[in-house]
Amino acid sequence: MQDVTNRKYHNSINCYTAKLTAAILLGEKNRNCCCNFYRSCNLVFSYLAEPNFSENKVYVFDYESVLLSGLPEKGLARAGIRIKSKVEISGIGPKLCLIKIHSIEAAEYNGVWPTSSFSRSLKLTQLLTGQLSNPIKFEYSSGHVGNIMAPDSVSDDGLNIYRGILNVLELSIKKMQHSYSLQEAGIGGICNTMYAIQENKRANLVYVTKSKDLNSCEEKVQMVTGSAYTYPCQTCQQRNKNSQATATYNYKIKYTRNEALITQADVEEIHEFAPFNEITGGNAIVEARQKFALTDVLKHTTEVPLKEFKIRGSLQYQFGSELLQLPVHLFTIKDVERQIEESLQDLVESTSEQLPSDAPAKALKLLHLFRAASEENYESVWKQLSSRQAYRRYILDIISAVANHRALRFLRHKMERQEVTNWEATQAVLVALHSSPPTQDVMEEATIIVKKHCPRSSTVLGKVCHLSYASLCHKQCSSSDSCSECLQLLHGFAGEALSKSNIEEITLALKALGNVGHPASIKHIKKFLPGYATGASDLPLKVHATAVVALKNIGKKDPKMVQAITLEIFLTQKNHPRIRMLAAAVLLETKPGLPILMTLADAVLKEPSMQVTSFIYSYLRALGRSTDPDLQVMASACRIAVRALSPKFDRSGYQFSKVFRFSMFKDSLMSGLAAKYLVLNNAGSLIPTVAISQLQAHFLGRVADPLEVGITAERVQEIFAKGYSPNGDWETRYDFKEILKKLSDWKAFSSDKPFASGYLKMFGQELFFGGLDKNAIQNALQAWYGPDEKIPSIKRIISSLQSGVGRQWTKALLSSEIRRIVPTCTGFPTETSFYYSSITKAAGNVQAQITPSPKSDFRLTDLLNANIRLRSKMSLRLAKEMIFVVGINTHTVQAGLEAHIKMSAQVPVNVVATAHMKEKNIKIEIPPCKDEINIITARSKTFAVTRNIGDLAASKMTPVLQPEAVPDIMKMSFDSDSASGETDKIKERQSAEDISSGNSFSFGQSSQKERFVQSLCSNASTFGIQVCIERKSIHAAFIKNVPLHYLVGEHTFKMSFKPVSSEAPIEKIQFTIQAGDQAPTKMVRLVKFEDPEAQVSSRKKAIKRVKKILDDNDYQGTRKSRSSSSSASSTSGSAESKVRSPSSSDSDKRPPQGSTQINLKTRQSKAKAKKFYPFGDSGSSSSSGSSSSSSGSSSSSSSRDSSSSSNSRSGSSNSKSGSSSSKSSSSSSSKSDGSDSSSSSKSRSSSSCKSSSNSSKGSSSSCKGSSSSSSKSRSSSHKGRSSSSNSKDSSSSSTGSSSTSKTSGIKQKAKKQSKTKTFPLASTAEGQRSVREQKRKTQTNSSSSRSSSSRSTSSGTSSSSESSSASHHHSKYDRQAEKKYVKSQFNSHSTVDVSAEREYQLSKVYQLHFRSAHIHWHPDHKISSSSESSSSESGRSHSNSSSSGSRSHSGTSSSSSHHHGETAGHSSRKSHVSSEISIHHSHGCSLTHERNFLGDVIPPGITIVAQAVRSDNRNQGYQATAYVHSDAAKVDVQLVVVQLAETDWKVCADAVLLPLKAQARVRWGKECRDFRIAATATTGQLARKPAVQLKVQWRRLPSWIKKTSTAFMQYIPGAALVLGFSEAHQRNPSHEFIVRAAATSPRTIDTVIKAPGVTLYYQALRLPFTLPLGPSPAYETRDITAWNLFSEIASQIAQEDQSTCEIRERDFKTFDHVSHTYSFNKSCSLIVVQDCTEHPKFIITTRKVDSQSFTREVHINTTSVNITICSAANSSLLVTCNEEQVLAQRGICDYEKEDVKISKNGRTVTVEAPALGLKNAAFDGVILKVTLASWMRGKTCGVCGNNDREKHNELLMPNQKLAHSSSAFVHSWVLLEETCSGGCKLQRSYVKLNRNPTIDGEESVCYSVDPVLKCMKACTPIEKTSVKVGFHCFPKDTVVNLLEWQRSSNKKSASEDVVESVDADIDCNCAGDCS
């Protein structure tokens, strides 16, 4: 193709050359003779003339332009306009033409495309005719349009329509080429243009095709507003184009001899907008077409109007009314002031009572009017209406959103005249400056406001004003380079603040510079960074942090410079760790490359601070997992950097700094969201020092940071720990500073005044910051009440509440106005805009009655003893509207798509609350629901809209998608024409037709509501209310399944409260809460449980009749049985058990199906023998030993439940039971999983259970008879491991006789029943007697059990010795052994177990066996542990865990090891065929079944009554009573909910909390027996890995729960697949849900989820945090109740975070567990630990009493007392407090004075001052131990260290420098004295190095930087030691002696050139005066 083009080109050149040569040589006459010779030449260059318009001619054209907006698919509505007209163009001079438009005909399109048609609009025609009535001039030469000239009467909009016509005439024809590209000017800018030219030589026509790429333009004409705070995502824009535009021009040009004339031109331009992925997300289009056809050429002269034509620009589009015109409102503005008043009145009146959904639209209309108004209008409206509060609020809100210089000037005048309060000014300035564009006029007004009316103090107005001005400056710098004026203002502000050393102003200036984010501010910010300016290091820490963070926004514009600065700050280890971490965070925000990241990684490897190490490692790891497109290159580099680091960094604990990041990006939407959480912790305390949360969003190819919140909590943990006032007065009688002056250059730790501070950023701009202290609260109140108002006191506020307070607050806000306007070829602009407006209204009236009435000296604490009645009526209403527009928007016409999203919400509160705080009683009354209340209403609908200003009544809004256009597939039928052989056709038929034709596939007629509307109501008829949710969705996804089409259409969501009719009217709804001792008095109905068996006595006679029949066939179905342990045989096969428990509520109503005869036969004996336990096993009210056969997962719920309560375990067992006896027939059977056959044995015996109880020591009970556990049995040896059986051996037959089996069962039963826990309220005498009986019976039963077990040969049972060991009760338990066992359980994952690892590797994770390892608690604080296997695999009989805290421990010596997988299920199914189920029925003493209702023995802890008070005074409502019983072993909680009416419906919830296990159940229905859900959480092991398991089981569930769960489960596999889970095919129980998680490493877990019908698993699931794997802490037994639960948890956390320092004679261990060996000075005091904040609260020193002994004395100075502890002559310790001896008398062990407590225990004296941070200090004369409170971390100093969990800075001296040796460190904390009379004869002196080292090639003299201990004058050293000291050196020639060096002030900042060891004196001998 290229060759053909080249040949044509060369032929054209040759032809042209030949013609030219012939003309020259032969002359004009003879030239034609050569025509035949050159016939082959092309006529490409026959059109030498270019398009032009001749003078004295009028060219008449037919012109038509069409502009349509909508979705490209057919069947959806579009909107647009069409203009037809006549265009006359006349040549009026050289290169000058006149264009005139007449005969205009305008039409609108609003309907379904393409079936609808344009409708003519007369009003729009008149409007356009008026705009285009005046002709204009334009320059035209060689196809190019030059300047355009028009009179002033021609509007900008009309002139742009002219430009659209002239744009067609713009041609750039090159004479030498057929196709070419160039940059061509047009209406949209200078854009890339491609030309293709073809010629029809016979017709003298040339066809020109011109294509424009409107995306690639140098001077693109567009207007974008509202997105200045976002920044582009370059990678996203390369992958996806959200907006594209192109235009194609087709010309037909007629050539004559002298001119070229455009006879026809067709233009088609398409603008495409794709909010999501342009390929798979859907798009909206704006299509513009032009037709330009020549109809006539008239030869006459055109008269030019006698008007002044001014140059009005070129062909490029000029913006006119688009900026002022809101796209959603179109109306005529005549009298703007009157219209403002009317609209304002309408808005106020409509929102006075309610808040309608159209209120935001009215606010937008008012905004439009204010934008069209002048300052005079503002002033007039303000004078008339500002005195009325409702009008005043709206005026200020709307004017602030006007966003122009006139609005700012109006606000400035109001601030000058103080006509607005500071609070009103703050809100107005915040909105105005952030909304305004950075025009020159706006910047001038904003500068005046900042200079004159914004205080630089720490007021709210000053902060908001400066920060908002900086944001406006940011917008100016982003749009243009001329922002020097605002930068100069802010830079000067920072310089002045630094010169005054005003920390508040410095902070404000730095934050303002951070908002601007301009690189020119870097040199000013450097002045506040450590290491960059002299004196910067002395600035507070928060100034350094603010300066570092200010570089973040600058890094987006100049990343290289910011990277260099932040990297240097990070690598400087002397900088504070917080500053270094913030610098690293800013550095990583600049997206550095691999070299910088590897530099960070290398620095981390050498980093001594664990805080910095943990922060950097977690940050790099989080970035490495990012899915953001713009971070992929950096993420890859971060993964490489992480690999270079040690994995040990991944195991840092919670106390170290971390970064957590989550990101999600969807390519189908080209949108994403990322959340980041930074935790900076300096001292390793529980509460982080700095917490920063950031949110980032990717959308439309741009990145935004919508929200960022940062909180700095310096003293929050201190406040929480002791309720400590941050502004306390620390003026004390002891001046610590006098003591600390004796130290060398002591510096207090910097402490900020506010104990908490924070900041708020939106879209990268800081809006506000502040601290929480007294001044901040004062400023906030002053801003609220005004500068002239006196802030009311607490008593005044209480008094006003008593008289009644009413407040109303309304806020109108235009939150977002994003607009993008581009011109089209027609001259009309197309706009894509988004508006988000809202109105919030809060109103309330509160009145309080306080008894007794507050007195003059009233305090807030008095309210705790008062009775308060509070009547409040409040309402919160929200109305929000979001509008998305695509289409035309001018002040005359609007046509396009509008998507309206309206949301309204209201929360009415009408409450009367009465609180009796002292009596712990609260009563709340609310009125009943009488009318329908819409709580939340949201609606979204998309319209095709056409409006024109001339005929607003004809405005039309057509839904883009009509509901009737949506096909219903359920109404379609398949029609096949087989006879004709044609293709089958699908025809849509109405349901009525289907019914009439007898279509069997018809589902009946469904209305539109049934098709699209889904509603759900939850009825609470008890309280006369129902909650209804209604959802409607009509979308266009049936046309194209893309995200945009899902949004287009109509969507509605509504949640409402509706009244429900009742028998009697409900007067009010009353809630009563009573806690404490008075809880029983508020019970409306007594809680009692009825025995279900007592209700079915009439059934017993029928059972007796059946029993007689069954006795004769008693043994027909049985086979020869084997001897077995007490494990009931269970089988699997069906998904649901056919046999229910004989004692369940419904089993008595119908005979069981498919069960054995024994079930019915034994019913009568059970009814006689059992006792009803409402909180026992809900599956059966029979004994724990009962079980039955099942073809499902388990035989019955009773067999499932009883198995967990009859597990055999080591140690003693506890059970709660009353004294009772029962007789029943029993039998036992056992089965081994995996065997092909099973055996059953049947035995009968009568048993009696006798139990006695002890209230303090436990109990014992003996049970004579045989027992068995159902479903499965377990036994564990004394080592805590379950014995397993071989499946092959388990099939062997037992040879024991029936009598032997019976005897064994009886003995095992007796052994089991001998270990039960007694009732806790029994007498002590009975308990002691029971203990003696238990010891005797335990020995007897153990021996019996061993003999019985030895005769049993059935495999799968434990050995007799193991059974004996398991049943033996150890009276003395070794706690060390217990700790070792617990430790082994937690550390088992690190042990090398080849078999376990092989099992883990070969087996799938979902097939592994979970072994629970929970600690069983006893009242005597002894722990017995066992390893229990929990089975839940398919084919197994699974058991419910007992919800009781204690378990009865079976003494049986046999245990069946259950195998998992299909083998077990297959074996069970085979055994079911060959075996007959034998039921062993007896009264068991299991705690699970005999758990008593706590309400029978203890009163409720809390009573809650929710009652509907009816007019007939009948009880209607619910009552909830909670019972809590706690001891050292467990916490037992029971909750019972009953109806106030006398019904048997109840809800029972009970829970047991153990250290490593938690159980909970919820049951409800008739006597809590209809439905049941149980959950058990257990810790254990999964293939030797630490694991946790959550098991949820249920029996029967209501239909609505089943329906909801079934619908929910349909989404589980898909959601799991998206999250990375794998699915396994495995049969799971139908009534069980299990979640298991095993820790495979500190950062990964294996997860298994087993639900009915699905098994999901995820191996190596990464966690965002580190698991605390390791030895578990020793459990401290403590009574926990419902009232002290949270306080105890807080106490445990605080204890864990405490730290202890230990001082001995020759060594010491710091708070951070660093040990040092050094002998202390003999006669001088040493600072052990002190509070190193600005206001020290305590100091502890010690000194030797005698240098020849180890005795010491300790001094503890606090803010209130001075305590001295020293040794006495009798080797006891003497204690003095304020020079007064205490604890001297016998029998007195405690002494308290103010906040200090002194206690003495033997030779140990303990001092406690928790309020001061000193937990305790214990001294026994030799060893001193100091324990600090958790909130003192990082705030101490002394030889014990700074207590910050960092070991690299332990040797910190008083001058905040690190010592070079332990000896130098200890010497720095020695307290010296002025004279030697006190015993300390040392002084500090600087020394000279005894050698002259060579420094920088010169011999030097060196002096120590830090002083060294030396003896005083007239003293000689007795003992010396070596210390390492730094030396600063001078050239030897420099005349500097030691005395001059000591006097010099430069030694503090002098550098250390060498470090040498020198001698220091530690003991001296003095003679004479040694002062």
Task: Note down, in words, how this protein is organized.
With 1971 residues, this protein is an alpha+beta fold. The chain is 25% helix and 31% strand. It has 44 helices and 75 strands. The strands form eleven sheets. The chain has a 25-stranded antiparallel beta sheet that branches. Strands 1, 2, 3, 4, 5, 6, 7, 8, 9, 12, 13, 14 and 15 form a 13-stranded antiparallel beta sheet that branches. β64 and β65 (1804-1809) form a beta hairpin. It is globular and about 135 Å long. It starts with a helix and ends in a 5-residue tail after the last strand. The model is unreliable at 1-47, 723-734, 978-1009, 1113-1171, 1178-1401, 1414-1490 and 1671-1686 (pLDDT under 50).
Secondary structure layout plus pairing:
Blueprint: H1 2-26, E1 58-70, E2 77-93, E3 96-112, E4 119-120, H2 122-131, E5 136-141, E6 144-150, H3 156-169, E7 179-186, E8 189-200, E9 205-217, E10 223-225, E11 231-232, H4 234-239, E12 243-255, E13 260-273, E14 284-298, E15 310-311, H5 336-350, H6 359-372, H7 375-385, H8 389-402, H9 405-416, H10 422-435, H11 440-453, H12 460-479, H13 484-500, H14 503-516, H15 522-525, H16 541-549, H17 551-554, H18 559-571, H19 577-589, H20 594-605, H21 610-624, H22 632-644, E16 658-666, E17 671-680, E18 690-699, E19 702-713, H23 716-722, H24 736-740, E20 756-762, E21 765-771, H25 774-785, H26 794-803, E22 805-823, E23 829-851, E24 867-889, E25 893-916, E26 921-926, E27 933-948, E28 956-959, E29 972-975, E30 985-988, H27 991-996, H28 1008-1012, E31 1013-1020, E32 1025-1035, H29 1043-1047, E33 1049-1059, E34 1066-1075, H30 1097-1112, H31 1157-1161, H32 1163-1169, H33 1197-1205, E35 1229-1230, E36 1239-1240, E37 1248-1252, E38 1260-1264, H34 1298-1313, H35 1324-1351, H36 1360-1367, H37 1375-1387, H38 1394-1402, E39 1410-1412, E40 1415-1417, E41 1423-1425, E42 1428-1430, ...
Helix pairs in contact: 5-6, 5-7, 6-8, 7-8, 8-10, 9-10, 9-11, 10-12, 11-12, 12-14, 13-14, 14-16, 16-19, 18-19, 19-21, 20-21, 20-22, 21-22, 34-35, 35-36
